[in-house]
From TrEMBL:
SMART domains: PKS_ER. The lineage of its organism: Bacteria, Pseudomonadati, Pseudomonadota, Alphaproteobacteria, Rhodospirillales. InterPro entries: ADH-like_C, ADH-like_N, ER, GroES-like_sf, NAD(P)-bd_dom_sf, QOR-like, Quin_OxRdtase/zeta-crystal_CS. GO terms for cellular component: cytosol. GO terms for molecular function: mRNA 3'-UTR AU-rich region binding; NADPH binding; quinone reductase (NADPH) activity; zinc ion binding. Keywords: NADP, Oxidoreductase. It comes from the Bacteria. This is NADPH2:quinone reductase. CDD domains: QOR2 (cd05286). Residues 11-323 form the Enoyl reductase (ER) domain.
Length: 325
């Protein structure tokens, strides 16, 4: 039997239930995976709350994990029993000690990579990769604004951005997180709880604005973020931690400087096996060579997923977060 955390209805952290289920046998193209660590990401809270829809209820949560292959189904090539693997693109259901899942989403783990680091970084790190390497390919000299710079995506992205030669401005919620953001590569930090980030960005850039805003916060920062952009700048809103962004008229983008606006998802940037492998490979490379260091800010027992969600939504977490089976 597998210990799983599922929801039978949407709502707050209290709807998370710890249950025992039979994971079953892998079918064609599937493997049965025994988790050694499980990644927790903000998108998990969107599914739990009902902001994003699941195909049915009850359903498990979690898109990322690391573990060991325990059985393989018919037609699976490239993976064998005993292989250490990780993943960060779902399908949802990683909050489990064991699960059956498609082999096509798995990535083989390097021997030097710790299980908790892999679980904590895969979704966040691949998100950082597509944001800064493909959606808007950051160039040396670019000035960028990254919201929630001390969070899991921010920690990885800011280190990577600095290595690419960008000037990184990061927003955070406290002085403690500002120090973490500086350690992760931010040249300038803005504590949004006491500073007006729009005014500070204008001051830092001498009124020019930034080339791109990477925003996983959403509603609370969206409008002011548009005003932080230079002419023909790119607004990338990839998350809704403060709530979904309200509708915006295209004429607003024209009036504010012929801006570009995009709302991407990792799934659309890893939609083929080739894209997934390329995205994961570049992430694993920058971690292996020390360009990016991943911090597990906090870990929780799998059975305390509800407390984990409370802390995540209460902005009490830093870096990456994992559940341990």
């Amino acid at each position: 039997m597998s210990t799983v955390v599922r929801i039978h209805q949407t709502g707050g952290p209290e709807v998370l239930r710890v249950e025992q289920i039979d994971p079953g046998l892998p079918g064609p193209g599937e493997v049965r995976l025994r988790h050694t660590a499980i990644g927790v990401n903000f998108i998990d809270t969107y599914l739990r709350s009902g902001l994003y829809s699941l195909p049915h209820l009850p359903h498990g949560l979690g898109f990322a994990g690391a573990g060991v292959v325990e059985a393989v189904g018919e037609g699976v090539t490239g993976f064998a029993v005993g292989d250490r693997v990780c993943y960060g693109t779902g399908p949802a259901g990683s909050y489990a000690t064991e699960r059956v899942m498609p082999a096509a989403v798995l990535i083989r783990m390097p021997d030097t990579l710790a299980d908790d680091i892999a679980a904590g970084m895969m979704l966040r790190g691949m998100t950082a990769q597509y944001l800064i390497r493909r959606l808007y390919p950051v160039q040396p000299g670019d000035v960028v604004l990254f919201h929630a710079a001390a969070g899991g995506v921010g920690e990885i992205a800011c280190q990577w951005l600095k290595a690419l030669g960008a000037t990184v401005i990061g927003t955070v919620g406290s002085d403690e997180k500002a120090e973490l953001a500086r350690q992760s590569g931010c040249h300038h930090t803005i504590v949004y709880t006491r500073e007006n980030f729009k005014e500070r960005v204008k001051e830092i850039t001498n009124g020019v604005g930034v080339a791109v805003v990477y925003d996983g916060v959403g509603k609370a920062v969206f409008e002011d973020s548009l005003d932080c952009l230079r002419l023909r700048g790119m607004m990338c809103t990839y998350g809704n931690a403060s709530g979904p962004v309200p509708p915006v008229s295209p004429i607003t983008l024209s009036q504010k400087g012929s801006l570009f606006l995009t709302r991407p998802t990792l799934a659309h940037y890893t939609s083929t096996r080739a894209e997934l492998e390329a995205t994961a490979s570049e992430l694993l490379d920058v971690v292996a060579n020390g360009t990016v260091k991943v911090t597990i800010g906090q870990s929780y027992p799998l059975t305390e997923a509800s407390r984990c969600h409370q802390d995540l939504e209460g902005r009490k977490t830093v870096g990456s977060t994992v559940l341990l089976p």
